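Section handout 9: paired folding examples.
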Amino acid sequence: MNARTSSVILAIAAILTSAGMARAHPHVFAEARLDVELSSAETVKSLRHTWRFDEVFSSTVLMEFDKNMDLKLDDQELGRVSKTVYEALAEYNYYQIVRHDGKDVAMKPPAQLTATYENGRLVILFESDPAQPLKLSGKIDFGIYDPTFYTAIIFTGDQSFAVEHLPSSCSRQIVRPNPDEAIAQNQATLTDAFLNDPAGTDPSKIVATMLEFACEAKGPDQ
């Protein structure tokens, strides 16, 4: 890897995950879709993510990765984009927030991440599975949020969250907290968390737009 290639990869990784400038407001924007796939055993099988980035960021990626300068990204160039984004997001669990009854759910790293370039927009697709079986019981939350606040992952409407064959024992709703209100209501908790663990404090979990399942407990005969 030459110095030019190395600097490009570091630059794109920094654009997606920089915490230094991120605390002010987002600098990168992506329209998102989340598809929750369920298994026949009434567990969460996987989360399928689609992110369509804004034209400004997409054009930056095009300029940096278009090695033959033909104003498009070929398969090899897109492969480099995929690898760079995959590695850059690994530290942040690919922006995934999954909770079961208020407790964080561990997710497996995606087997792969695919980048495409469509109509002037960079599109990222990947799929992630729970590390352990995640039963449809109690309250389950799904969200996508950049904890550095540098990238805004935007769900433009309720249709951006999709799930098929949700059992009748479960209901679903989209929760869109007001960021200022959510932070104000949790100020004491956030302050305590910051004092105890400044590096681990993550307010994204209280301001992220979430898909929420509420599932009734089943008796032994059900």
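Moving on to protein 2 of 2.
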Amino acid sequence: MPISDAESVVMDVLWRRAPLSADDVVAALAASTDWQEPTIKTLLNRLLKKRAIAAERDGKRYLYRPLLKRADYVHSESKSLLDRLFDGRVAPLVAHFSERRKLSKKDLTELKRLIEELDHDA
């Protein structure tokens, strides 16, 4: 399911601390965004319509929780990026970052470890 950038910010809050009320989500986003309460409630409603989240009545309020798992969202977004920009291939993505000097020594160590693990599994 397509999740907008703004919706993903709301999802991130819910992935970290669900269940939350709308007021809790507003408070959590107050420091990092300049969004007003109506904007956040609109985003929550959009996510409800997409069935990315669920709402459960708790007295006079609703508590929101994610239905979409973060790992599934990350997989979908990563695949979309690879497909759009790199013909679905990982190597050109890594090459792009290495050409731009964005790979730290830690990144290189982790990539080498991952390649070794993949070689052992093959």
